[in-house]
Design goal:
The chain is 58% helix and 0% strand. The protein has 4 helices and no strands. The longest helix is centred in the middle third of the chain and has 39 residues.
Length: 173
């Protein structure tokens, strides 16, 4: 599964490069890739895009600021700056995409925290019930022991699920 950060990085790189290619640099030459192009390891995959974002041009005069090749025309520079307002990832701007990602992560963390607290309460109740039980028959003790063991196993499954979800959230970031 490709992380959202990889798609966001690829969207930014592709948009900036596409716009820079439309303009002309300070010397009147056609624009070149501003950022190192995303090389997809497999078709449709943006894996590694975020880790490999790098500036491709080495000379500031290579920035294709002009839209028509004349000095003083900064129309393409304005278009480059306006990329922040364009939909570049899944129909959303980079800011909206990143905000949605953070919101999702925040909600997931909140859910995991709530589930952890619930498991803690269940465990506390079970411990209280166990300590309240005294002076009962061995048959009742055995039955309660099996009941508590099953409850503990269920709680362990919940904790495992919470742990898996937490790991997923951390990897998504």
């Amino acid at each position: 599964m490709i992380s959202a950060g990889q798609n966001l990085a690829a969207g930014i790189v592709n948009s900036v490069n596409a716009q820079n290619l439309k303009g002309y640099d300070l010397n009147g030459a056609k624009g070149v890739d501003f950022l190192q192009p995303v090389v997809q390891p497999t078709p449709g995959s943006n894996a590694g895009a975020a880790e490999n974002v790098a500036v491709a041009i080495t000379d500031p005069s290579q920035v294709a600021a002009s839209s028509d090749g004349t000095q003083g025309d900064n129309a393409n520079a304005l278009a480059l700056a306006n990329i922040q307002n364009e939909a570049i990832v899944d129909g959303r701007t980079a800011t909206d995409f990143y905000s949605d990602l953070l919101s999702t992560v925040g909600n997931d963390v909140s859910t995991v925290t709530d589930e952890k607290q619930s498991v803690g309460l269940v465990l506390s109740q079970l411990q209280n019930q166990r300590s309240d039980t005294s002076g009962v028959s061995l048959d009742e003790e055995a039955a309660n022991l099996i009941l508590y063991q099953r409850a503990y196993e269920a709680a362990a499954e919940v904790v495992s699920a919470v742990n898996d979800l937490t790991n997923y959230v951390i990897q998504t970031i």
